[in-house]
Design brief:
3 domains, 255 residues, repeat, Serine Threonine Protein Phosphatase 5, Tetratricopeptide repeat, TPR repeat, Ycf3, 76% helix, mainly alpha, TPR_rpt, Type IV pilus biogenesis/stability protein PilW
Length: 255
């Protein structure tokens, strides 16, 4: 199972950003005028940062739209104004990751984290990048740092990812702990619910597994994996109507 980058969820971090690109452009023009007229002291630095942040925000908007070239240009502009902008550095890492430029992506992830070691969204995405490259031990290390941030808004998703990562390095008990922590933070965590259903099934606890699976079905779309698991559990629990229904759903899914 692929580790998901969701902890960033750019669309939620920058709510409504796609519809504000034009406003950002106007704001940037206005701020540049302010910077040009400002004294050389503190206000210049403050206004420059605002301009940089606006370019970085616009870069994420283009990234959401799938326009990597415009995203890159906006992020480069942000960095030309503020080379230490962790938001722009993170954005560049995501752009290069999407382009398959692994060396550059890693460099920008590390720069963003060097700028702010508490930047949990970037750290979580860096872990996802490492996971995709099969560097599971490194990914788990980054995720353990991420979940230690108790103020991270998407901490439950980081626990989901940590659980998946721990499964890859053959630490199922620690993975289960991570999934249960994800559920304590968000009882509707789909990955954790499905993984716990699978864990309880492997532990010969079919009723507990069925309950986890039912919760999963209430919050997520059915997949081949979840349907097959449901069929196996229904068979063990002698729930013949449920088994027939799940088989029909699996057949429809395959069509």
């Amino acid at each position: 199972m692929m580790l998901q980058i969701r902890p960033l969820r750019i669309a939620t971090v920058f709510s409504g950003i796609v519809y504000r690109v034009v406003i950002c452009l106007l704001l940037i023009t206005w701020m540049i005028t302010l910077v040009a007229c400002a004294p050389v002291a503190g206000p210049l630095y403050s206004d420059s940062q605002k301009v940089s942040d606006s370019y970085a925000e616009m870069g994420f908007a283009y990234l959401l739209q799938g326009n990597r070239e415009r995203a890159k240009r906006s992020l480069v502009k942000a960095l030309s104004i503020d080379p230490r902008s962790q938001t722009a550095l993170h954005g560049m890492a995501l752009v290069y990751r999407s382009e398959g430029e692994d060396t550059l992506a890693e460099q920008y992830f590390l720069q963003a984290l060097d700028r702010d070691r508490h930047f949990s969204a970037a750290r979580n995405n860096f872990a996802a990048f490492l996971y995709e490259k099969g560097r599971y031990n490194e990914a788990c290390k980054q995720l353990k740092l991420t979940v230690s941030d108790t103020l991270y808004r998407k901490r439950w998703q980081a626990f989901e990812n940590l659980g998946l990562c721990l499964l890859k390095i053959d630490q199922p008990h620690q993975a289960e702990d991570a999934f249960l922590k994800a559920l304590r933070l968000n009882a509707r965590s789909p990955i954790a619910l499905l993984e716990m259903a699978d864990r309880r099934h492997s532990q010969k606890q079919p009723l507990a597994a069925w309950l986890f699976l039912q919760e999963y079905m209430s919050v997520a779309k059915m997949t081949s994996r979840s349907l097959r698991l449901g069929i196996e559990l229904a068979d063990v629990l002698n729930m013949y109507d449920e088994r027939r229904h799940l088989r029909e759903e699996l057949a429809r899914l395959k069509q």
